[in-house]
Write a sequence for this structure.
């Protein structure tokens, strides 16, 4: 009985147990069915999605930065090129204490205070996850030394970077410009122009000069490598690659030897010179003095160098040929003369008798003085140019009227950009009554027309404009678009594409009038002319015009005496010329700031440039130009030239 | 002579279970070879682990269940003492105090408890089977809560969870009333916020990340995201052995241990996954059958608990890798690299085999 109940109990218990096992088995099956449906969801329904994610995980596009194009002068002399250097770089986001790290590093590899300063500056300009160079130009020994100790410096690595180098140093720095690290505003520009993908991996971009203007050509097209990467981002293998297209080489029309002769000719003076081939607009020399070393800028200029450049009273960073604006002074006269001739106002035998001053009809009290107080005597148009007779041009300007005068000379490029292939060109100023009304809300006075006749008053030009005008005059009124780059050479094929020679303006001039103005200008460099010394010993004829631009106003009854005035308040010396006068091959404009008189300060520089260009003559020693009579354009007004 | 020897050797081995285990281990070796970046050393050392575990399994299979019943209580007390030792003198590695140095050997007592706890509970319930009352279940729960408390303190959530599960299965199979079961479910729901506040920050984060792994794609969510990418990109047939990009290019973390299933799923696809689940189902099914036919209460409860704990291993690991359960440190049984858990697992299977092969005829 007991046994039976025990057995019954036992069977009941076994039944209960099996029931519970059955429940557990059902739970197992439900759970596994849940897993399998999850597999279906992941591996069938969302397969494409996860497939894409897996591919994105493993494939990365690595940009291959193209080599930047070279800049060569017309004879193949290298002005800008690239080379690889080892740099030691720190990624600040990977480092706890950057200062301590640099101190430790400097025990291993020399780190100068300049390096530290530059690093500090660059660091503020870049994101913390970008690597910033602490040392550049590591030699092999230093690179090896670091490589051995690398494990001690997480967040520091050696990179091989392509560096821009300007082997000629300070030569033609304003023309070449420089490249610098891409900053936020550059990025914005790239984004706006939809160029941003081409700059993946690029660190540098042209910041000024030709480097900036021809950035698209010089940069080239970035190549890409599709690489398989692991979770650390290390490349495992290359899947495919598109080679970069190196940037185009720029072959300039500038002759670097001519350029260096011109720069040296300035000596300690500040100023600008532009020399152009009048027949095709090729720029032969482009000088802005003082210059600077563009190599300083390539990987970020240190604060001290920047300060000394930026704060210098000599303003070496100003690109004077296109951004320096000066009153043209008497260099404006040949163009006024041409206007008078073409208008039939002053054709021979017209002449005046110069008393040494001009008076406006009806206002005898105010004398517009000639630079020569006693006057030039009997003056026709040719002599007026040769001796730079102010009285003659006062009357002529008044006769022509301001509107006719400005509209005529604007064909020589005054008051507008010349279109040179560098950004940032200034327009200068060719004043008109309309302009004055808009600018100052004031009526135009006849006296203002009078002084425009001698290139004073509101009139402002850049050295580039002056050279362009001289070239247009030399080319019989046909203006050729100026350009520094003669041809663009494809780097991989070697094929050169010449920059097209374009006529940018032309004005029909009577050959007789051309001859008259030319004769007047040729006589400037002959005995009796304002730059007689410049023509001494020349085997070719030089057509030229001197000028002087006032820096401070001289009162009605004062006399200008250079020796009394602070050096920086002396007049600017101007000089335009073209030669050979009969068949011009070179036209140029020179401005020597605070140089005094155009013939004596600026003329000799022009002569050296022309001698080398036309004769291949290298200046031997310094020829001291013979001091001439002080020749001054002194305007009777007390106005200062506006610097706008 | 030889056949006689092998007969003797294999007398207590369940050939069906053995076959399934060996096949799964073989698959595991192939996956490990791929996941380790074709590392022969690692694969070789896993082969040694397997051989050692099989030896222990064989030994366990040859011990009659009555002996096991006898050592259940001393083993449990010994295990508790060791856990106490860990809490007092344990060695800390990876932020957890799990190991105990005993002279030459370094042991992980929580691993021992995976067997000792269900044995203890099975013994206790078998002893009290004639007169089970509410207080018996309360005592049983106490045997469960004490070791789990120690292990959670280490902290080792994965092991605590598995031991809790194994103990719960004993309680459930011993006849825990449905009403009580329902009641404890409700009280668990009520106590969940309390439990939540007791969790470590990293444990809480794991549960949050489960709900939205993209909250922290490079931190706590990284494991889950990369594992689901690996599985999903495997598709129907997989990328092929040794060809999984997620696995071979280091995107998958812990891919030889807890996340090895992602490697398998990426390289063998949905078909491979289903095959593996079928194998696991066969093992579980065999275990349940052994439990159903076991001779006495102790054997029944122990066999059922071991089998269902194995299921829990599989479900928690695969659920975690495929992103439906939080990331807890539970390896995939028979596949993941590592000797300790493999030994415990095969010890369990040895006990199953012992239960199956030591049956005596019931006297009627």
């Amino acid at each position: 009985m007991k046994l039976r109940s025990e057995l019954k109990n036992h069977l009941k218990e076994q039944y209960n147990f099996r029931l519970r096992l059955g429940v557990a088995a059902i739970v197992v099956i439900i759970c596994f069915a849940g897993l399998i449906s999850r597999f279906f969801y992941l591996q069938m329904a969302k397969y494409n999605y996860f497939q894409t994610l897996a591919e994105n995980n493993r494939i990365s596009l690595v940009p291959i930065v193209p080599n930047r194009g070279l800049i060569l002068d017309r004879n193949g002399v290298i002005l800008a090129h690239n080379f690889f250097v080892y740099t030691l770089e720190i990624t600040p986001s990977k480092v706890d204490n950057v200062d301590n790290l640099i101190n430790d590093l400097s025990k291993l590899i020399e780190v100068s205070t300049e390096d530290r300063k530059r690093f500090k500056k660059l660091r503020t300009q870049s994101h913390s996850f970008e690597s910033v160079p602490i040392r550049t130009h590591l030699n092999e020994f230093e690179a090896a030394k670091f490589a051995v100790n690398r494990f001690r410096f997480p967040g520091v690595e050696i990179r091989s970077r392509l560096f821009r180098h300007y082997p000629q140093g300070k030569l033609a720095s304003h023309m070449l410009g420089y490249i610098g690290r891409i900053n936020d505003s550059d990025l914005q520009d790239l984004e706006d122009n939809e160029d941003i993908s081409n700059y993946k991996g690029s660190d540098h971009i042209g910041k000024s000069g030709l480097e900036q203007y021809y950035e698209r050509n010089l940069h080239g097209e970035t190549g890409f490598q599709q690489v398989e990467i692991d979770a650390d981002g290390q490349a495992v293998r290359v899947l495919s690659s598109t080679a970069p297209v190196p940037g185009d080489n720029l072959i300039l029309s500038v002759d670097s030897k001519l350029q260096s002769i011109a720069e040296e000719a300035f000596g300690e003076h500040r100023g600008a010179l532009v020399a152009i081939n009048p027949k095709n607009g090729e720029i032969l020399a482009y000088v802005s003095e003082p210059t600077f070393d563009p190599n300083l800028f390539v990987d970020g200029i240190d604060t001290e160098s920047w300060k000394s450049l930026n704060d210098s009273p000599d303003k070496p960073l100003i690109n004077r040929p296109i951004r320096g604006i000066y009153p043209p002074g008497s260099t404006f006269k040949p163009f006024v003369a041409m206007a008078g001739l073409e208008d039939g106002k002053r054709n021979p035998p017209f002449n005046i008798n110069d008393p040494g001053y001009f008076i406006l009809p009806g206002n005898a009290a105010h004398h517009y003085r000639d630079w020569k107080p006693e006057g030039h005597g009997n003056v026709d148009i040719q002599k007026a140019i040769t001796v730079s007779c102010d009285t003659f041009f006062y009357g002529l300007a008044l006769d022509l009227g301001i509107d006719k005068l400005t509209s005529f000379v604007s064909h020589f490029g005054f008051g507008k950009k010349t279109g040179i292939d560098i950004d940032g060109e200034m327009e200068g100023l060719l004043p008109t009554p309309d302009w004055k009304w808009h600018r100052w809300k004031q009526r135009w006075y006849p006296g203002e027309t009078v002084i425009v006749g001698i290139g004073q008053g509101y009139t402002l030009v850049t050295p580039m404009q002056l050279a362009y005008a001289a070239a247009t005059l030399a080319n019989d009124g046909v203006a050729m678009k100026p350009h520094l780059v003669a041809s663009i050479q494809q780097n991989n094929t070697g094929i050169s594409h010449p920059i097209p020679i374009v006529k940018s303006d032309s004005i029909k001039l009577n050959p007789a009038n051309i001859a008259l103005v030319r004769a007047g200008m040729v006589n400037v460099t002959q005995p009796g002319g304002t730059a007689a010394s410049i023509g001494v010993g020349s085997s070719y004829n030089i057509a030229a015009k001197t000028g002087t631009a006032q820096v401070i106003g001289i009162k009605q009854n004062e006399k200008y005496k250079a020796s009394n005035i602070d050096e920086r308040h002396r007049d600017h010396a101007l000089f335009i010329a073209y030669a050979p006068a009969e068949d011009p091959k070179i036209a140029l404009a020179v401005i020597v700031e605070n140089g005094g008189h155009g013939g004596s300060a600026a003329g000799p520089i022009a002569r050296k440039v022309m001698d080398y260009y036309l004769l291949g003559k290298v200046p031997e020693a310094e020829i001291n130009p013979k001091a001439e009579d002080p020749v001054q354009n002194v305007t009777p007004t007390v106005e200062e030239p506006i610097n706008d | 002579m030889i056949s006689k020897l092998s007969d003797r050797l294999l007398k207590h081995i369940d050939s069906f279970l053995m076959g399934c285990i060996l096949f799964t281990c073989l698959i595991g070796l192939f996956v490990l070879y791929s996941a380790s970046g074709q590392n022969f050393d690692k694969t070789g050392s896993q082969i040694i682990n397997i051989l050692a575990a099989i030896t222990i399994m064989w030994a366990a299979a040859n011990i009659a269940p009555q002996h096991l019943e006898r050592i259940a209580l001393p083993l449990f007390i010994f295990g508790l003492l060791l856990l106490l030792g860990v809490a007092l003198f344990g060695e800390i590695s990876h932020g957890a105090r799990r190991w105990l140095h005993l002279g030459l050997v370094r042991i992980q007592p929580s691993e021992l408890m995976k067997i000792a706890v269900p044995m203890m509970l099975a013994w206790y319930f078998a002893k009290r089977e004639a007169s089970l009352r509410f207080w018996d279940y309360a005592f049983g729960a106490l045997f469960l809560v004490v070791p789990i408390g120690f292990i959670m303190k280490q902290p080792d959530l994965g092991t605590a969870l598995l031991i809790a599960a194994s103990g719960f299965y004993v309680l459930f199979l011993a006849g825990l009333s449905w009403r009580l079961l329902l009641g404890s479910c409700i009280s668990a729901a009520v106590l969940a916020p309390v439990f939540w506040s007791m969790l470590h920050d990293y444990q809480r984060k794991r549960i949050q990340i489960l709900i939205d792994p993209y909250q922290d794609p490079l931190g706590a969510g990284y494991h889950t995201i990369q594992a689901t990418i690996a599985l999903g990109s495997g598709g129907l047939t997989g990328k092929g052995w040794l060809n999984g990009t997620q696995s071979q290019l280091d995107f998958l973390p812990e891919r030889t241990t807890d996340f090895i299933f992602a490697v398998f799923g990426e390289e063998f696809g949905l078909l491979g996954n289903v095959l593996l689940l079928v194998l696991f189902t066969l093992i579980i099914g065999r275990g349940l059958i052994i439990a159903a036919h076991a001779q006495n209460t102790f054997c029944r409860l122990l066999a059922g608990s071991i089998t269902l704990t194995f299921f829990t291993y599989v479900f928690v690991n695969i659920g975690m890798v495929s992103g439906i359960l939080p990331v807890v440190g539970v390896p995939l049984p028979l596949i993941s690299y590592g000797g300790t858990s493999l030994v415990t697992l095969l010890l369990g299977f040895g006990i199953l085999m012992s239960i199956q092969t030591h049956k005596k005829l019931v006297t009627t």
Summary: The longest strand of chain A covers residues 78-90. The mean pLDDT of chain A is 86. The first helix of chain A runs from residue 2 to 45.
